[in-house]
Amino acid sequence: MTEISRPVLTSDDWHVVKIFVQFLKVFYDSTLTLSRAYYPTSSQAIHQIVEISEMLNMYRDDNILGTAVVAMENKFKKYRSKISFLYALGVILDPRVKLSGLEVFLDYIDSKLDIDFSEQVTDIRTKLFEVFNIYECRFGGVNTQPSE
């Protein structure tokens, strides 16, 4: 007589798998979004950082993932506590977001991961106006005269 075999994964195991898949999906989606080759992705980087920070915050106290998430969050904060000017400029140049939207995004990330971006926002604003002034000096102001 053969012994009836148990299922390889129990319902509890499937529950853990489901949680892992939900957690890792945001990283998968971010990788796909930021790895595209035929259009610029720098304007999407801050959006993806927002998504990841939300996911880390959501699973920080989870019984299954909590310990790993805290370690991931510390590593994430180490590398993402300074926002690249390129990423910031990409978001600022998006007419739907602008500088005020960038500040909202950074405040949101701060609320999820406790990262203070206030000094960086000041630096980004200063660099943005420096770039604008260089552009204005090189190409002049806007011509308000109607063309004939």
UniProtKB/TrEMBL annotation:
InterPro entries in the record: hAT-like_transposase_RNase-H (IPR025525), RNaseH-like_sf (IPR012337)
SUPFAM superfamilies (alphabetical): Ribonuclease H-like (SSF53098)
A Pfam family this chain is assigned to: hAT-like_RNase-H
GO molecular function terms listed in the Swiss-Prot or TrEMBL record: DNA binding
Domain of life: Eukaryota
Domain hAT-like transposase RNase-H fold: start-end pairs: 36-135
Entry protein name: hAT-like transposase RNase-H fold domain-containing protein
Organism whose genome encodes this protein: Dipteronia sinensis
Lineage: Eukaryota, Viridiplantae, Streptophyta, Embryophyta, Tracheophyta
